[in-house]
Structures are given as C-alpha cells and as structure tokens.
Backbone:
C-alpha cells in the first residue's frame, strides 16, 4: 500500500511541474530519506512508474520522466496498466464533471437556487448597506469580522452548550479553504492522515497535493469499525482524521452518538486531531442529527468546520472554523498569508441574515423541499427493474447507490453523459481509486419533474447495459 | 549567505511545529540531500542555530530543538545574537503593527475610507441586486465570473493594446492570495527567487513559508542595477522575480521604461518568470506611469497582478491575475483547491461599478486628495530640523524615509508607539532583515490635520533621540 502512496506523491510532483519530461528523478536513496520511508518502498513506486509508462530507466544513471506522448503509448501495453492510468485520470475529474452542462445534473451537491429566498436576501442586502454605509471601504481582519464571530460563538452556546470565545473562531471562504489551510498547517510530505472511505473528493485532492499518505477508514450505515480506527491510529500515528460524520458526503450516513464519544477518547489517547466537516447538519428530514462530535471534546483535539455556503447563501461563501487556540492560532497565521481575510461585505450581509427570523422559516421550508426531492428520487429508483441498492439518507443532499455487478459505473457514466445526465462515479470519492460499483446521485439541484424523468432515463440506460 | 537561508528555512519549519522542543533535527547529510545544498551549508546553519540558542547538540547523536524558555536565555549571551533574534521577531510584526490602534497611523498603506464614494457604492449595490435577484444562490466558477473576466480583458486591450483572452484571467481574493497561489505553484523548498530590496513584507512571509531562498535586488530611485539582475539570474536560475515596479511599496520608486523592456528580455533569456504586482498604477499624481512591464512581454514570461482592493472598494477584495495558459492553468487548479472561487456577489458588484462613469470621477478626485496628503507630509518632514531624506513619490501611498545615522528605527518605533504614532520599520521590508535606518510612512489613511500633527510629533521624538 505505502508504495502506491509514494507513487501518487511522485505523480503529484510531476503534475506540479517539479519534474518535467526527461528530467532525472531523485535517486532512490535520496527520495527515501526525504520522505522518511524504506528504500524498497521507493523502489516499488519507481517500478510502477516505469510499468505505467511514466518513467524510464537509463543504464547506470537512474530514473527519468517520460514525455507525455510516450506515456500514453506505454499505457496501451496491457489491461492492468490501463486501469491504473484511468484511475489516476479520474482523480481530477470532479471539476470536469461539474463543467458538463447536463440537463439532469445529479452530479452537483448544491441546492437549487429556486429553493433559496433570493428576493428576500436581495432586499436584506440593501438594509445592511443602510446600517453600514461605509462597508465597501473597510477591510476585515484576517480572522474575520468580530461581530460575526461573536454571533457564531453565542450560536454554539445556545445550540450545543459549548463555550468557545470569539477568538476561537476563524472565518474562511467556504469549507474548501478551511480544509486547505488545515492541510497546510498539519501535513508534511508522507504524513499519515485518516480519511473516510468514500469521502469528499476535493478534500482528497487537497491532501494529495500536500503530500499526505491517505489511510482509509470505511464508512458503513452503522458507522466506522472502531477497533479498526484504533488500530490505524496506533499503527500510523496520523496527524488528523478528516471526517464528515453527519449526513455524510457522498453516502448520506450518520455516525451514531456512541461512536462520536469513543472517537473523542481515541483522539486524545493517540493525539490525533479530529477535523469534523459539518456542512449538512441543518439539512435533516425527520429528526435532528446527533450532536457534533466536537461538543464531546474537552481536551481540544476536535476542530469543527461549519459551512453555511450550501444552505444560507452559496453566493457568500461563509464557513466558520471552531477550535482551541493551539489550532486556531496557526490557522489564522495561515489565513493571513493565504488571502488576509474574507471580504467584509459578505460577512456583514451574512451575520444579519443569519440572525433573522426569516432565516429560520427558510430552513424549515428547505428541509421539506429537500425531503420531497429525496422521496421522489427513492420512488423512481425503487420503481426501476434494476437491482441497485442504497440506504435512505435521513438528511443531506445525496443518495449513494450501489449498482448491480453487471453494470460498471464508468460504462454507465459515459452513456449517461451522452444522454445529458451527470452523476459522480464512486471511484473519485475513494482514496483507493476503487469503488467502481458505486455512484453518488444528488437530489438537491434538479427540480421535481427533472428528478423523475432523469432517474427513469438513468434506469433505462442501466438496463440496456445490463442486457448486453 | 546561503546558510542564512537554510537557517530561516529551519526556523520556519520549527515555527510551523514540524520540529518541537527536544525533537531531533535531521542529520546534516539528510537535510543537505533534501534541500539540494552542500553539507557545509547545512553545518553552518546548524552552528548559527546553536549560537542563537535555537538548537543544542547531544554527543554523538545530533542536533536537537531548544525548548522556548532556554532559547530566550541563550539569546542574552551577546549583542550579536540579540540582533539576530530581534530580526527574526521583527519578521512577523507587520500584522502586529496593524493591530496597534494608534492615533496617527502612518503604518497602514490603506486609503482613508472617507475618500471612497461609499454612499454611491451602497446605492450601486442595490442596483446590482435588482439586475441579478438570484445572485445570493449562485456559486462562481473557481476562475472567476466570466462577465468580469471579459470586462478586464477588454480593459487591458483598451488601455495597453494587449490582447488576452478572458480564459487568461483569474480572479483572486486580493493580491495577497495571488502571491500565495503563485508561490505554491512555483516554489519548492530552497528554490531561488528574486525579490526587490526592500519589498512588501507579507510577500516575504509567504515566500519564506514556502521555503524559498530569497535573492535580493536593490531598488533605488534609478531602478535596478541591470547587470546585477542578469548576474543573479545567470547564477541562481531563479524561478521568478517578484516585483512591484510602479509606485513601489514601500519606496514609491518607479522602474523606468527602458529597464522594463530589458527585464522582459532577461526573463526570456534566463527563463525566469516576472511577477508584476501593480496595485498602485492608477494612483499617479502628475503624469501616468510607464506601461506595465507585462505589456512588453510576447513570450509569456510575465504574470500581471492587478489589485483593485486598494482604491476601488477594499471591502470587495478583488484582484485580477493576467497571464498565459502555462501559468494561468496551474493557477486555476491551485485556486480550485484553495477555496474553489471568490464569492460571486462581490465580483458582480465590482464589475458594474468598475465600468461606471462614477468610478472615473472617483479616481480623479482620489488622485488629487492623495497628492494633497503627500504634499502635507513632505512639507512637515522638510520643516523639521532633522536630517532625514526621501525621494518624492510620484504616486502610490508611501514615503520611504531615511533616518539620520544618529536615530535608529527601532528606538524611534518604540517611542512613537508609546505616543500613539505608528509606522513600518524598514527592517521588516528587507529580505535581509537589515535597513535599520529606514522607515515607511503612509500618508493615505490619516486625514490632513492628523498628518500635520503626527509628523510634527514624530519629528519631536526623533529630535529627542538625536540629542541623547
């Protein structure tokens, strides 16, 4: 397994342009020293590079980078290699998929703008500018607007009885930036980190770019295998565990309360930071989800990312990071370097809207609308004469669908795109680039009519593939 | 010189928490291999760490990190070391200085919010929301709003006759994020880069955090020493030259047209990217500055950063990066990972305001207001019976003041802060942590009355120090 991570690490550095065509790669000894791994591991990674047509050997001189064209040729040599290479390409495909303008976009876990109270929000913005007429002329501090941080600190207190000082809150541009900044302060090349399997693919891209060694933790409807988590923490001493325990993306699963408490204990014992990404918390259907894992933490091992981009106002890109000084301090320093602070305009609009009654009403309506869409998607999936399986999500935006063995996700994907239907193949959510029998379908963006028609068409395509 | 850069590199990694108190540092051989430098260089860096009380030696086992307390003690041993240590502390002081709530804030190169057309802007925002009522519900692409990129592409064409396609423009959160993303895609640890001396201190912080080896190029009122620049490019093969050639921060100097053309030639010859940071271009007093260096580039070696945060609307944090696909491509990928795109709200507000007639009127008034403030500052500086010297800035926000030898910047700084006057000590703008006889005074934030009184008081303080 480890050599595969070293392989990915080298590929990342090649993609970054650190080593170009016909450059000499570092000697096995040097790279082993730099990455703190065994020479045999580097040797195996170099062998795989050679096998995949990414590197070639010059007698007595070492390994060199293959020019692009030749690497393509190299790939055609056998089936096995084709698979590896397509996995690597899949790696960077989420943004590509999002570029596709399909009629039935099940690929984007984004809320239909028609479900957001846009007109009200626009009116609201005008009020905010009446309150702060000079808003446009003022910079925010890198940490974020103090008024906003106070409001969020009170919010945590009121909802979860957790006391955090406003100085322990950082505002970022969406959860994406929070994950990137955390990766920058925690990860050195080849550091082990735990990630759920499957997980948010953009987070995987960030961690890989930072050179992390990804240790997967399977997420099932029952949660994690806690003995396995403990063993992995013991064995790999990961810097952190990046998790999305509530209405998880892509599966929709939720980690039970007991495991939340156990994880906090494990984190303390093995000094492993828990990064809890909680973007979907408020998007529950029947009942409230368990408390954030973060609220059980008394020793400061948990960092809580609460994005409001998805459901309050995507246009504002506001995410809050809650954590103890030991993490928030370095994070503020990283944020200062990265962009010196979010715009003040968007923070002020957010803080006033967030506290309004209208916001609560919006949320209640939104939950109902999302639940209806989930129900429609499930109805249509169940009506199809295909043996696909899923676990009903109790919140969030996605259904994680297991295809029958006779239908491969990549075949279904190619055919669907041709018919203007998009979804996310499971493979790109998998730290191991596998999970080829799974796909993520988002029911949040397309309207009810499109949902019905789109899923019916998807089922037709799957059926045709099955019959071949 | 090189060992000092290795020293800074190790200090950065210690500050990041990569190596903590009593951790063993890498062996000299390993670190030399990792950084691609001579072992002797690493040895010298370790010696300096030891001397400064940052590391200690265990017999036959190597170098270890000193705990914080002891390092403080270690520093007291001799004068030389005190200086080194205070230079390192100075390093992270710009944000600290900005936290100081002085009555006379000459430390911030920010435009007085009273000089911005705030009320008009607020009215403007309301119009924008009337045009795009669903603005709040929509994400921008990572690269930035297409309408905005088209407008900026046309702007370049109209003003400088340079044709760049909208796909060759990237929108970032201020110039700060553009610099950070460029550092991330270009710099590997110990890569050489050229920086002006003095320069924007936050850029130095970013480059150091990324592990760059900083090669200084002196910037005088006459520009750079071009032979020296060529020699440095030849010798160090720098990845890029980060420059701010127009109304330079902190000096206010402007690079002459001839040198701009020569630099573009040198960049091609030595394959050194030119990063032209041009935040002050529109803030000229008597006449327009020379064309951006970027406009002379035909081979794609120049990247042009044009921030509008300073003078259009700081609250929006909009910066545009212009460059060829070979740079913009990786930059978009980095931006996607970093935060997946600026908020759409701020981009739409900006694009409409930027094209308005009112914006042109504002700019003309702003130039006059800034010129008046510069004149007042110069008047008061000249009236003081102190032999300080400066070159009149023809634009921008700052005066770069050389103190008489009898007055040290750090003494003046400590005393000024006590009397509620802030400025930026030259040392933190210097890649070599020297320039202790220089300070940066910004005339853009404080009003005319405060300018007079503040400079008079500063002169009084300097005089008292001189007489001691």
Residues:
């Amino acid at each position: 397994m480890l050599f595969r991570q070293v392989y990915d690490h080298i590929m990342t550095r090649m993609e970054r342009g650190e080593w170009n065509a016909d450059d000499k790669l570092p000697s096995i000894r040097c790279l082993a020293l730099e990455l703190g791994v065994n020479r045999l591991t580097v040797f195996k990674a170099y062998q795989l590079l050679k096998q995949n047509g990414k590197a070639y050997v010059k007698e007595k001189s070492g390994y060199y980078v293959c020019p692009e064209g030749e690497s393509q040729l190299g790939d055609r040599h056998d089936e096995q290699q084709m698979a590896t290479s397509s996995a690597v390409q899949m790696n960077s495909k989420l943004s590509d998929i999002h570029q596709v303008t399909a009629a039935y976009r099940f690929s984007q876990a984004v809320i239909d703008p028609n479900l957001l109270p846009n007109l009200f929000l626009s009116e609201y913005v005008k009020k905010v500018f009446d309150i702060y007429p000079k808003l446009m002329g003022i910079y925010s501090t890198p940490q974020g607007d103090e008024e906003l941080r106070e409001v969020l600190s009170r919010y945590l207190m009121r909802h979860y009885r957790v006391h955090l000082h406003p100085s322990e809150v950082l505002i970022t541009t969406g959860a994406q930036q929070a994950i990137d900044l955390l990766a920058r302060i925690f990860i050195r090349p080849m550091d082990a980190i735990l990630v759920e399997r499957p997980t948010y693919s953009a987070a995987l891209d960030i961690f890989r770019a930072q050179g992390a060694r990804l240790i997967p933790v399977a997420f099932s409807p029952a949660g994690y295998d806690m003995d396995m988590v403990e063993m992995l923490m013991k064995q790999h001493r990961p810097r952190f565990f990046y998790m999305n325990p509530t209405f998880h993306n892509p599966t929709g699963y939720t980690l039970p309360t007991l495991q939340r408490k156990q994880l906090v204990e494990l984190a303390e014992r093995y000094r492993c930071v828990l990064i809890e990404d909680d973007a979907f918390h408020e998007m529950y259907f029947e009942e409230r989800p368990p408390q954030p894992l973060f609220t059980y933490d008394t020793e400061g091992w948990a960092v809580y990312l609460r994005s409001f981009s998805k459901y309050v106002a995507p246009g504002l890109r506001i995410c809050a990071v809650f954590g103890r000084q030991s993490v928030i301090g370095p994070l503020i320093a990283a944020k200062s370097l990265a962009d010196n602070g979010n715009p003040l305009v968007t923070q002020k609009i957010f803080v006033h809207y967030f506290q309004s009654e209208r916001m609560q009403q919006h949320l209640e309506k939104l939950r109902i609308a999302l639940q209806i869409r989930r129900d429609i998607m499930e109805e249509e999936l169940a009506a199809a004469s295909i043996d696909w399986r899923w676990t009903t999500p109790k919140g969030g935006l996605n259904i994680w669908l297991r295809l029958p063995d006779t239908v491969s996700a990549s075949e279904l994907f190619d055919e669907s795109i041709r018919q203007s239907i998009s979804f996310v193949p499971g493979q790109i959510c998998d730290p191991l680039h596998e999970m080829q029998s799974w796909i993520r379908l988002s029911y949040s963006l397309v309207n009810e009519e499109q949902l019905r028609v789109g899923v019916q068409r998807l089922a037709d395509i799957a059926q045709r593939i099955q019959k071949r």
In short: Confidence is low (pLDDT under 50) at residues 70-92 of chain A. DSSP finds 17 helices and 14 strands in chain A. The domain at 117-355 of chain A is CATH 3.40.640.10 (Aspartate Aminotransferase; domain 2).
